[in-house]
Amino acid sequence: MNDLPRKAVARTARLAALPLGYAGRSAVGLGKRLGGASSEAVLTEIQQRTAEQLFRTLGELKGGAMKFGQAMSIFEAALPEELAAPYREQLTRLQDSAPPMPTIMIRQRLAEDLGANWHEHLVDFDAVPAAAASIGQVHKGIWVEPGAGTGDRRLGVAVKVQYPGAGEALRSDLRQLARLARSLGPMVPGIEVKPLLAELQARAAEELDYGLEADAQRTFAAAYRDDPDIVVPDVVAGSPHVLVTEWLESPGSLAQVIRDGTQEERDHYAGHFVRFLFGGPSRTGMLHADPHPGNFRPLPSADGTPGRLGVLDFGAVARLPERGLPRSLGALIRIAAMDDYDQLVDQLREEGFIRERIRLDADQLRAYLGPFIEPAAEETFQFSRQWMRRQFRRLNDPRGEAYATMLRLNLPPSYLLIHRTWTGAIGVLSQLEAELPFRALLEENLPGFADPR
Q: pLDDT tens-digit profile of 168-192?
């Protein structure tokens, strides 16, 4: 792909073709079944071809299309195995990379944002991008800061540059995908497409502002400087469309650990992942709200054993009014883990999760929440795709009590992004198949869970 497709009509046409292609393949599949082919073989072929078309298109278009694909990839663990297998390779590919863009556009953007003399600081710039994502791509370089009597300071940096036209493409894609949400649903069974797109639309403006991202990353870098578990690269320079940060040398991302990691690596890096996502808000007043595996980089120790976890991409963060996660959230989880659902009903009503005129008793709430609370109620818990799928089956079965209870609960606006981030994080832990002392991690990092006050 040599250019970011920017013409609205062309992008809209490619996105609109996705459900049409799926419908066409389904019609051909029906013909094959009538001709004697097995339903299983036909379904597998449809899913494989659908996955290839869907995620190839989303990756090539970048913008909001790829952002949507990356967001869906977090929930791969929830798909039934017979449906997940054909999607897994394409989904995880979007977690880590995208087709690169020509460097001439990148150099033009650098001159616009950093000034015509940008190369006086950025003295070395690798023309081949190290990574290419939804609205920008990253190049490796050398940044020079003049020294005061001590010589110049040379620093390896990551130069993140936003594609020209990315803002227009992002907003246009998300609008078009929202219009197609009902048609896209059958292509990715088990994933709630409409609310996912609504959240992406709500946060689009913030993700396009690299200056805002630089401010967030500076805060996280300061909070985690010299931390034994987490590494956040320092910001070197920032502007609305260019972000220069310290280079983080890593052999890959959590996507590689999900695919090839040992159980020791899975458990080790999953623990750091939880500590960062749940403990970060107390240190920074912000929640890193983009937990897909490509943003997290395992950093092995000098002897090759699992080491610290690097964290990238602070474009999607929630600035929390309480300078941390709500204490009420930890208290609610603690009460549920104690199996005190009578008290939980009262607390949920007080917090606005159960509206005034809705009747809900303790047994109904236990049937819905009980399996979700398992990780917090046990000494250690083994996350798995199988466990995640059970939860999604319960919630998507309209005949079940969990489904009926879910429809009667209300999610207050202040919890929307927290809920999506946590759901995504649990999806990643399930992909990692990690075994963790999850209750102890909550006691350590989640306000209100260990201390009821």
A: 777 776 666 666 555 554 444 445 5
Alpha-helical segments (H) within 285-395: 327-337, 341-351, 362-377, 385-395
Residue 347 lies in a domain: yes
Residue 84 shares a structural domain with residue 41? yes
**Residue 399 one-letter amino acid:** R
Q: Are residues 235 and 299 in the same domain?
A: yes
Residue 60 included in any domain = yes
Residues 302, 403 within the same domain: no
For 46-78, how does the pLDDT look when each residue is reduced to its tens digit (9 = 90+)?
Answer: 455 555 555 555 545 555 455 555 555 555 555
Determine the pLDDT at residue 382: 97
pLDDT at 130: 84
| Separation CA 403–CA 192 (nearest Å) | 14
Q: Which residues pair with 138 in a beta bridge?
A: 131, 160
Burial 262-293 (b: 16+ CB within 10 A, else e): eeebbbbbbbbbbbbbbbbbbbbbbbbbbbbb
Q: Cα separation of 330 and 449, whole Å?
A: 4
Tell me which H or E stretch contains 198: helix 193-202
**What total of structural domains would you count in the chain?**
3
Domain that holds residue 436: 327-445
From CA 60, how far away is CA 76, in angstroms rounded? Answer: 20
Same domain, 43 and 26: yes
